Each structure stands twice: as C-alpha cells, then as structure tokens.
C-alpha cells in the first residue's frame, strides 16, 4: 500500500505517517493539495495531511480543499505532540546568534514567535512548504547565515546542529493529522476517542440559524468538541460551519440530528466518522 504525506522526509507529517504506517511505502508530496490530489487520482491509496494545531488553529488549506473540491473520506485521526527545534549548519553552530534569515513552514514560524522575538527581532522570516524543506535548504547552504525551525528528526536527517530546543510558545503544542482515502482505517495505535466531522451550511437570512442548528445536537446530548466558520468563497458574508462531534451517542441519534438539519434547509457534508489516535512526540 502507498501512503502519501506532506513532505519531504523528516517533517512532522512524515513522522506521523511513519508511526501510523511503519510497514507501508511512504510517498512525499510538496504541498497539501498535491497530496490530496494524489489520493483522488489513485496515485496513492491513502494520504496523511495536517488539519489543526493547538497554537495556530485549523490548517485552512486542508479544510477548504476537502470541502470545496473533493469527496475523499476521512478514515482516522492522528494527534502528535509538537516540539520545535532551532537548527543551523554545524559550521555556524558557534555563531548561531548571527542568523539573518529563519526558514520554516508558516505554522512553525507562528508557533515560535516568543523565541524569535527574544533572539532574532530583526531576522527575516521566510515561509517554506514544510519544516523539513527548511532544514534541507539550510543544510545545502552552509555559507549563508540562515536557520531552520523543524523537528529534531530533521536535524538528524540533514546533519544540522540544534542550538535552541523546544522553542514552541506553548509546551502542550499538538497537531492533528487526518488520514484520508478510506472510510475505515485500522492503525497500530491506541484509540483515544471517536469523532465525526461535518461541514454545515444553513439557508441564507434564516434568523437564529446557528442557534437552531446547535439545538439539534444539544437536546440529544451530542457533545461538540469544535465549531468554526469558514468562508464559502461565493458571496462576502456567507460561511460554512466545520463541526466535530464526539461519538458517544447511538449512531441512530447522530443520523436523526443530521436529518433534522437537512429538514431545516441545511446542507450537511460528512468528512468522516473516525477513531482518534495519540502518538508520542518527535
């Protein structure tokens, strides 16, 4: 079986994919849309993409692509504790405070703002497709005064020196990854929870639309672990709601809730009903 992931190797997504699929062929892709398209067109059987981070919130590229452009199901979720490391080429290890450019994925840069402000308030921040890409670029250009923010595995893979350990702003930083491509996916990991994720669009100009929608879940004692709005990309001011449901009630009760939403004129897209797995951080 082939499993695609947001590459290159030694990225956080790669670490999540490798832990979840230790015996499968892992194929890196340069972007989230490229990974999702590979699943859609059958180039790989499954894909692993980031969906949310504790500090920065949802990965909008993943959410929007899965909502607007495909019907690929979500079959599992992986939760990975995230530890960001500040790394430079080994020849620059003693002079790391002279760094002029810091490269990383936008999420990693945002997750490390306190460290950056404290040590490099004037450094140029450069976004890269992934943390591992940033590490590989730093390794390929040791003559430059540059650094990468990436996982420890990237330092090992690209032979870099870690000069700032665990620099993320929040100690309990975690990222959720979705495994897409099949409705039911079995992973060799402990199951922490079970959830269902839906996207809900309510009729325009319906008074109290969100209140009415949430009441459908409330009186049935269906617990929501997340709700957020995203633009529909049609008309300014129109949104869909991304909702995570904790699956504790009988399946029939969940189905009745979704049917009631449809009877109110709402449109419901089910991303998937899946198990949540927590793995060790790397």
Structure report:
By secondary structure, this protein is an alpha/beta fold. It has 3 domains: 2-81 and 173-180, Periplasmic binding protein-like II (D-Maltodextrin-Binding Protein, domain 2), CATH 3.40.190; 85-164, Periplasmic binding protein-like II (D-Maltodextrin-Binding Protein, domain 2, 3-Layer(aba) Sandwich); 195-273, Alpha-Beta Plaits, CATH 3.30.70.260. Helix content is 28%, strand content 34%. The chain is built from 9 helices and 15 strands. Strands 1, 2, 3, 4, 5, 11, 12, 13, 14 and 15 form a 10-stranded mixed β-sheet that branches. The chain has a 5-stranded mixed β-sheet with strand order 8-7-9-6-10. It catalyses: prephenate + H(+) = 3-phenylpyruvate + CO2 + H2O. Pathway: Amino-acid biosynthesis; L-phenylalanine biosynthesis; phenylpyruvate from prephenate: step 1/1.
- Low-pLDDT stretches are none
- Class from secondary-structure proportions: alpha/beta
Distance between the termini: 24 Å
In CATH terms, what is the architecture of the largest domain?
A: 3-Layer(aba) Sandwich
Tell me how many strands there are: 15
CATH homolog superfamily of the largest domain:
Periplasmic binding protein-like II
Mean pLDDT over the residues: 91
Q: Count of DSSP helices?
A: 9
- Shape estimate: elongated
CATH class of the largest domain: Alpha Beta
Largest sheet geometry: 10 strands, mixed
The radius of gyration computed from the alpha-carbon positions, rounded to a whole number of angstroms, is 20 Å
In percent, how much strand structure appears in the residues?
Answer: 25-35%
Question: What is the helix/strand order?
Answer: EHEHEEHEEEHHEHEHEEEHEEHE
Q: Percent of residues in helical segments?
A: 25-40%
The tally of structural domains comes to: 3
CATH topology of the largest domain: D-Maltodextrin-Binding Protein, domain 2
